[in-house]
Amino acid sequence: MNLLLILTFVAAAVAAPFDDDDKIVGGYICEENSVPYQVSLNSGYHFCGGSLISEQWVVSAGHCYKSRIQVRLGEHNIEVLEGNEQFINAAKIIRHPKYNSRTLDNDILLIKLSSPAVINSRVSAISLPTAPPAAGTESLISGWGNTLSSGADYPDELQCLDAPVLSQAECEASYPGKITNNMFCVG
């Protein structure tokens, strides 16, 4: 299976651009250490996910912006100190200058870590795709989002979901008038 990383910001911004931006419905508990680029953004509590893209940079969703963020790397269960996590404060937080909170257009955020992450079996960077994914490409989505389509169940353990990239027509049909050229849908 050809898996393409659908970065956390993409999954949050485009799979369901408004009410459903924190959902990971129909997934499964990820095998521990199987998604070493997945990070938890924390400000006293987990509030968003992101992806480590180099030793010192994380990408996330623009709607996850806070003025102070601690990035937690090597997490699996966000409620348990498992002993191998790295907690690194953000030195710089850059939201796309054309981010629109109403439409979620340009929903991307970069975080520079105050010190480089230590790369090991639990923490490593993921390469960014060089081109947009084609419709039908199998993708891996991961995070600690709501696992219910209605109601709320936020898991402590990292969730994974394998899902195809949808065509632009399918995406626009699912969310009429809400999809921009900066978005694509998965699911």
From TrEMBL:
Swiss-Prot/TrEMBL GO biological process terms: proteolysis
Annotated InterPro entries: Peptidase_S1_PA, Peptidase_S1_PA_chymotrypsin, Peptidase_S1A, Serine_Proteases_S1, Trypsin_dom, TRYPSIN_HIS
Highest taxon listed in the record's lineage: Eukaryota
UniProt entry tagged with the keyword Lyase: no
Key words, A-Z: Disulfide bond, Hydrolase, Protease, Serine protease, Signal, Zymogen
GO molecular function annotation: serine-type endopeptidase activity
The protein's name: PRSS2 protein
Gene name, Swiss-Prot/TrEMBL: PRSS2
Signal peptide range in chain numbering: 1-15
Domain Peptidase S1 residue range list: 24-187
Keyword Signal: yes
SUPFAM superfamilies xref list: Trypsin-like serine proteases
